[in-house]
Amino acid sequence: MIIYIAAPYTPTPNSDETEESNAKSAMEIAYQVYRKGHIPFIPHLSHWWDIYLKQNNSLVDYDDHIRIDLAILERCDAILITRGATTSNGVKIEKEFAETNGILIYWSVDDIPENFPCLGPQSKREAYFRLFLPMLTKSFQKNQDYSPLNIALTGLEGLATRILDKALRFRSIMKRGYEAVKGETIEDTFFDIRNYGFISTLVHNKWWLLPWVSKDEEKGWQIE
Length: 224
Prior knowledge:
4-stranded parallel beta sheet; 2 domains
């Protein structure tokens, strides 16, 4: 995945932080993401671009930076919001943008699954976990954002239609090439088919309308 690093850039008042130290902190976090097999994007690298612009009497203001960052965030698979970053106005804007556009949100590097496609899974069990865990995380987030009625009202028949639509997209991509469907890769199609199959199992077993968490879970477990 391409993961956007959302961390504070403006120093906290009355602290030893500087723009440069915050940029370096973001770079350290990005390296941890890279070590897990993903591609990090670090918006803080624009710190050195700002220095260059100021030295040449040019200026890119705050709104320009936000516009540029959101344009890149839109192309990312996920965003990592670091600890303490939620007080940053810029991060608040990035978080709202990610939520609106269905971009996966992580709150800790530990939550990000490992992904080493160059090595490949060493067993079928490992392959299943690599495919299932990201789907589960994304499904958790999406199903908290939407009413369960969008599935419950049409039931298995509606899900069959959705799966058929994805299967036809799969066939179209196979016949016309991997770039035939703009903005939809063949991996996206596989993901959607897996997800709707999972939801179909919940509906079939009459588990779809269960509460999101039980009272016992509320006491000790909460999904961000």
